[in-house]
């Protein structure tokens, strides 16, 4: 049987995760303070939880901002009007519509330069009060995409979705986005109460890498901690291959914080000239799905 490029990437991801998990386990045995990292030993969350929402842009809208707002049920956005265009099913090649996000030359994070990229929040009713949930979506970087030093990608959030150096105190909420880094290395980028870093924690960097010119499926599962306990979990699968499981996470100190939905957030940066894209670039996003256990 001939192995496809996707099959080959899945095998590579699986082997990388296995070796990294073994290395992390060995390191944890020597350093009690090291984060608990391994790889998921359960099925992808999309196979274990029922589907509760599958939003997509409304192609009947006359412009992108309306299409995003109507399709994702959101009123909170930035950069969408200027930097997003709607893609039909033929443009994505997936049989479903998507979004193309532009990163204009010389831009990085919204607080650093003229805004590049875009952001919005989507809170599907099926996640209301969720303490565990699953998000899947697909991303495609344009062929030859220059990753520079890194940039943000969407993930799940709760509460006030802290970011940009916000304090995380266990009551304000959390955000669990992804990042691309140099040469397309992937990672979880998290704002949680158990982190020590001021500007978010980089977790699992290099356990997978993003190619250019082809779709990659990201799958993220969050299990919130019991208030007062450090028993939260995060799991990641890439193209169906298990790549990262992190334990001992404190997302919250009160059960009023739950998983609210999608923090769509994508831009270059970091701050400063070294993070800025040197040319106009874009990435495509499609096939957003939310899964959660029945109440």
What descriptive keywords fit this protein?
alpha+beta; 295 residues; nine-stranded antiparallel sheet; 5 helices; 35% strand; Jelly Rolls; globular; signal; Polysacc_lyase_14; Polysaccharide lyase 14 domain-containing protein
For the terminal residues, how far apart are their CA atoms? 43 Å
How much beta, percentage-wise? 25-35%
Counting DSSP H or I runs of 4 or more residues, the number of helices is 5
Oligomer type: single chain
CATH class: Mainly Beta
Q: Give the count of structural domains.
A: 1
Q: For the report, how would you describe the main beta sheet?
A: 9 strands, antiparallel
Measured on Cα atoms, how large is the radius of gyration? 18 Å
CATH architecture: Sandwich
Helix residue percentage: 10-25%
Secondary structure class reads: alpha+beta
Organism: Halomonas shengliensis
Protein name: Polysaccharide lyase 14 domain-containing protein
Domain Polysaccharide lyase: 95-288
Signal peptide: 1-29
